[in-house]
Amino acid sequence: MRKKKAETIALILTGVVCLFVIMNKNDTEDDVTSNSKDTHEMLHHQIHLPRSKTPKPLSSRCQQNMSAYNVTGFSTLPGHIQDFLLYRHCRNFPMLLDLPNKCGGPLNSADVFLLLVIKSSPENYERREVLRKTWAKERLHKGVWIRRVFIIGTTKTGFEKRRLNKLLELENNENKDILQWDFNDSFFNLTLKQILFLEWMERWCPQARFLLNGDDDIFANTFNMIEYLQGQEDNNGSKHLFTGHLIQNVGPIRHSSSKYFVPVQVQESDRYPPYCGGGGFLLSGFTARTIYNMSHSIIILPIDDVYMGMCLEKAGLKPTSHFAVKTAGLHVPAENVDIFHPCYYREIILVHRFLPHMIFVMWDEIQNPHLQCGKTNSSLQGSP
Ligand SMILES: *[C@@H]1O[C@H](CO)[C@@H](O)[C@H](O)[C@H]1NC(C)=O
Ligand SMILES: *[C@@H]1O[C@H](CO)[C@@H](O)[C@H](O)[C@H]1NC(C)=O
Ligand SMILES: *[C@@H]1O[C@H](CO)[C@@H](O)[C@H](O)[C@H]1NC(C)=O
Ligand SMILES: *[C@@H]1O[C@H](CO)[C@@H](O)[C@H](O)[C@H]1NC(C)=O
Ligand SMILES: *[C@@H]1O[C@H](CO)[C@@H](O)[C@H](O)[C@H]1NC(C)=O
Ligand SMILES: *[C@@H]1O[C@H](CO)[C@@H](O)[C@H](O)[C@H]1NC(C)=O
Ligand SMILES: *[C@@H]1O[C@H](CO)[C@@H](O)[C@H](O)[C@H]1NC(C)=O
Q1: Among the record's GO biological process terms, what is one (predicted)?
Q2: Whose CA is nearest to atom 11 of ligand 7?
Q3: C-alpha dihedral sign at 255, 152, 196, 118
Q4: Exposure of 96 by Cβ count < 10 A (0-12 exposed, 13-18 middle, 19+ buried)?
Q5: Closest C-alpha residue for ligand 7 atom 3
């Protein structure tokens, strides 16, 4: 009896090990998948099978642009910039998680008043969970719908990548709020992420009235946002709007140590167009569609918010400044003040850089009906 049981266990274990080996093998094979269209198509279809047992296809490859190696000084550039130049032209990546019904289908999508489009990455689970419970909660407010999507690529390779993708799949089963594509979710691929989102929007949510586009570490007062957008005279989303923290008269940073380093090999011009800081900005559906339209004929620049500015400029549209968007952080009037005093956040639309637990606390506090705020209230000027 005992022996039989042990044998069964051994058999199961062997099976599991074999399965693991096979799955890993498939993984390496997928990584070198040929670029043939048929394989491509086939893999693409597999993804849409609900919870299929077949291993998910990994990167389907866009070919390197070999001429990039010939660019002057190529070998002296940092690795991520070389990588950028080699794959700059790639704009098509398979979708791993899609939400065709997010806006009730393209024809009904005008019912979405505010679509929150939040740039996240696979590891940022805690941030997403907090946003779902707080300012990014999907809801009907003042008679209009707020909807939410996170836009995400992939990170890591092999089983680590699979595990993170599994996490996103689980989150999506529960929350239906993740758009994921199979590309490396790196800083220099943020523009790609934005373009892929706009492509999705054109297809599935073309009539959404307004959008908030921002990072997953911002605190946004979505009540104020709705109030502001509803207060737009004669703009129901069908006219131009693009507003946030306006940045003008700047150009590429040429110091190779900066995160934002853009060498002449990437952009020769020393000028950036006016743009809004990418931590968070508001735009109309019309403007989002126009930007997408323009993007077809503008070569990708890795800095995503500047790229938006380029698309606007080409369309002859201007970004504007909104005083209540604080993507550069909040300026407090004096030292020794509680910068988390809720009164500061009652009036803002958006602030950059909040830790998840502070988002949770602040969301509760700004809704406190007993909170009394006044510009002259001295309690704001110096907490003990
Ligand atoms: C790179 O430059 C070399 C020498 O000028 C040239 O022969 C080659 O065709 C170039 N390669 C590409 C891909 O442009
Ligand atoms: C390939 O790279 C070269 C050099 O950077 C560039 O001039 C060319 O436009 C690129 N080709 C494509 C298809 O992006
Ligand atoms: C993604 O890009 C980053 C930055 O360029 C790089 O460090 C990382 O190795 C890349 N990851 C994969 C899986 O290619
Ligand atoms: C962008 O993603 C693609 C696809 O994963 C990758 O080949 C490329 O290296 C990435 N670019 C950067 C700059 O990370
Ligand atoms: C939005 O406003 C435009 C006029 O600016 C109007 O033609 C259009 O019908 C309006 N759309 C909706 C859905 O109300
Ligand atoms: C997009 O561009 C095409 C021409 O390239 C134009 O016909 C079309 O009206 C544009 N659409 C929008 C929404 O700007
Ligand atoms: C100022 O703040 C204090 C403490 O938060 C509160 O008790 C007081 O009523 C406020 N005064 C005004 C004028 O809002």
Answers
A1: poly-N-acetyllactosamine biosynthetic process
A2: 377
A3: negative
A4: buried
A5: 379
Does residue 87 line the site of ligand 4, with CB under 6 A? yes
Tens-place pLDDT, residues 110-141: 999 999 999 999 999 999 999 999 999 999 99
Q: Which one, of 210, 39, 47, 190, lies nearest residue 119 by Cα?
A: 190
Q: What is the DSSP letter of 111?
A: G
Domain boundaries, the chain: 60-90, 95-321
- As a whole number of angstroms, the distance between CA 349 and CA 335 comes to 23
* Residue 379 Cβ < 6 Å to ligand 7: yes
Report pLDDT for 10.
58
Average pLDDT over residues 41-49: 40
Q: Alpha-carbon dihedral of residues 66, 68, 70, 72, nearest 10 degrees?
A: -170
What kind of fold does domain 95-321 have according to CATH?
A: Spore Coat Polysaccharide Biosynthesis Protein SpsA; Chain A (3.90.550)
For 233-243, write each residue's pLDDT tens digit. 999 999 999 99
**Proximal ligand: closest to the CA of 63:** 4
Confidence of residue 333 (pLDDT cuts 50, 70, 90): low
- Which bound ligand lies closest to the C-alpha atom of 71? 2
DSSP letters spanning 196-265: HHHHHHHHH-TT--EEEEEETTEEE-HHHHHHHHHT-TT-SSSS--EEEEEE-S---B--TTSTTB--TT
CA distance 59 to 80: 18
How much is the mean pLDDT over the chain? 86
The answer to whether residue 198 scores a pLDDT higher than 70 is yes
Task: Report the DSSP beta bridge partners of residue 118.
Answer: 150, 214
In this prediction, residues 214-224 reach a mean pLDDT of: 96
The DSSP secondary structure of 256-298, one letter per residue, reads TTSTTB--TTT---S----EEEEEEEEEEHHHHHHHHHHHTTS
Q: How far apart are CA 331 and CA 362, in angstroms?
A: 17
Question: Bridge-partner residues for 351, per DSSP?
Answer: 219, 326
pTM: 0.83
